[in-house]
Queue: 4 jobs
Job 1
Amino acid sequence: DTGVSQDPRHKITKRGQNVTFRCDPISEHNRLYWYRQTLGQGPEFLTYFQNEAQLEKSRLLSDRFSAERPKGSFSTLEIQRTEQGDSAMYLCASSPFRDARNIQYFGAGTRLSVL
Amino acid sequence: GQQVMQIPQYQHVQEGEDFTTYCNSSTTLSNIQWYKQRPGGHPVFLIQLVKSGEVKKQKRLTFQFGEAKKNSSLHITATQTTDVGTYFCAGPDTGNQFYFGTGTSLTVIP
């Protein structure tokens, strides 16, 4: 068990640029979640996958955001035409979802700064 | 949409004092989880409660799920400096979107 890995840890970009983050979940975890967290707030749900299927997307997720999990293993989160309001910590979590226990294991996150 | 509020937002206690955070959801939850996030860290799972009125203990931590499954509490007895962090409750809505509470930041003064 190597834990949930996120890359990069930090990303600084200029407004209007596209950015992509990667998440490698714990091996054999079938659920994968993406959250956004700003300072002093709780994680805000963005989307989640059951294997390769994207099952839920937050209404807060604008069309500039897209996530994929092509083979049911790692996932990517892309933000197009970044805005200063996108600056936040982007957290990924995975869950084995056994017996209705949905324990989520979080990665260290990717901190995005949009200048 | 679903809202999960926690009070207090901040709590400062002397080491050895007790601490309680309360979590209230605008909708009924099928289950509730608690996470701890240390400063600069990521959320770490503490416990999951499923049954109405359920109470679980982990050493000095006591977790309770309300009878109506819309509220929960976390109580820490005799706080230690290692308890410092932000405590979040979280739960799924009927569509499996996961909502985290607003969090309670605990500071323990040695």
Job 2
Amino acid sequence: DQQVKQNSPSLSVQEGRISILNCDYTNSMFDYFLWYKKYPAEGPTFLISISSIKDKNEDGRFTVFLNKSAKHLSLHIVPSQPGDSAVYFCAASSDQTGANNLFFGTGTRLTVIP
Amino acid sequence: DAGITQSPRHKVTETGTPVTLRCHQTENHRYMYWYRQDPGHGLRLIHYSYGVKDTDKGEVSDGYSVSRSKTEDFLLTLESATSSQTSVYFCAISRQRGSGTDTQYFGPGTRLTVL
């Protein structure tokens, strides 16, 4: 039972435009959300996170929005660059579990076209 | 980048053989994790450790065991490998747990193929 869902397996965007990656979750106990970026043959790299007490967090070109009532978060990349082409994973955790377990979505492959 | 290495990086083995994957960290982080990545599932937690000799099960622990005799090393063992354990395995570390404020950092992965 997938508690974190990324319903778009792939996304293509022109360089310089905005990329919007979406993520939905089902467990209302999740209180911390993260985005990871993954290149082929490498491990996931932490990108940005947001606590459930906030609805927005920004870091340079990357902004994450959280809508708790809809159990939805999104990652905005502006402007998109060819180097952003990678697989993006959404992840969530809950302080209620015994460890800092992360529950991952299935990933969205972003392709930024030069 | 966090100092995490995994060995081997690639392994091909046969059904029924034991396999041990190693994760080594140089960050002195307390928490270590093993995940597997499969198409259609993202990453799923196998086991984690919250200190030397302290481990617990994750979401998909059946068929796997772990050991942590030193802070820096976390071993994942497949006692008798099956084809369903063909996957990419990632180790991760974090400094602390709880409060949702600590981030997990991942190693480069081990690609395991069980024939």
Job 3
Amino acid sequence: AQSVTQLGSHVSVSEGALVLLRCNYSSSVPPYLFWYVQYPNQGLQLLLKYTSAATLVKGINGFEAEFKKSETSFHLTKPSAHMSDAAEYFCAVSGRRGNEKLTFGTGTRLTIIP
Amino acid sequence: NAGVTQTPKFQVLKTGQSMTLQCAQDMNHNSMYWYRQDPGMGLRLIYYSASEGTTDKGEVPNGYNVSRLNKREFSLRLESAAPSQTSVYFCASSEMAGASYEQYFGPGTRLTVT
């Protein structure tokens, strides 16, 4: 079974600084990987996904993530944080077989310091 | 398009009471899901329906039942609510059941069981 570990339940960055949210996966074969964002009092929204095309995946709102097989990582980055990025971010993993389901990490709450 | 809608938004139950959470999607999606979100635990899959007429257990099905009423609607029932079921419940849908298909989430139902 696949699983993901998100390092850091809370991350604070200054406005304009680099955002780095960490996600490591556990899987015997390269999985599908996802980042979702949850704004306060809302449902989750897909930021980006890796399904084995390019290892550097670009998403919405200026976010990107790089799949690194050697490190079993799929960290989320954004060069310059904006106040509107304050939210909770979830990494998720799935196997590649037809009917596999998403397994979510425990989430990282991102706070932006003005 | 409204996307995925959930009712009610908030609910307080006493232990032993029953209730049904409603979910509907207007995207003509085949697959629908129910998750619960608890602090520090991310989202966990309760039940899913890969297509109209089918339902399957997820990671945490105990204490819940579901009905895929038609292609649009997927309800979650708590027959005898327990305090351990205090949580935020999210419904989601996707075009097909495979994990490579993006899941679209509703705004959630916040349930408190006293």
Job 4
Amino acid sequence: AQSVTQPDIHITVSEGASLELRCNYSYGATPYLFWYVQSPGQGLQLLLKYFSGDTLVQGIKGFEAEFKRSQSSFNLRKPSVHWSDAAEYFCAVASNTGNQFYFGTGTSLTVIP
Amino acid sequence: NAGVTQTPKFQVLKTGQSMTLQCAQDMNHNSMYWYRQDPGMGLRLIYYSASEGTTDKGEVPNGYNVSRLNKREFSLRLESAAPSQTSVYFCASASGQGADTEAFFGQGTRLTVV
């Protein structure tokens, strides 16, 4: 069965520092992987997605993620965090039919000045 | 471009009351979903519909029913609300077309059952 693990419940970083959010997945085939961001009181917005090809994918707002099949990971990174990046981040995996999405429990990001 | 629209945005129910959460999408997507979001538990799939006329249970379907009224609309019904159903509910839709898919979310419905 598909599953997603986000080991870090909460992360605090200083503005301008680099960021890495971890995501591990379990899926029997080539996964479709996603990172979503949720600002307080809002729905989820797609940051980036991976289906195949180049294992380093670029997303919106300066985020990128790297797919590592050997580690079953899809970690999200940003070189320099801005205060507006404070939010909840969710990693997700979709079935290869694209019909079902499974989400991790989320990582809450706090950015301090 | 409205995307995914959920109504209502907020609702308070008494235990035992019933209600229906409405969801509509204007992106001609095949797949639609209902999730609930609880602190520390992420998003859990309640029901999904891979196409018009079909519905399937997700991880936490107990206490809920759904109807895929047409391609645009997917409603979630609580027949007899319980305090354990206090949550934020999100509707989502996706094309379901393999590598072209991504999930689009509504703004959520915050439901409190007292």
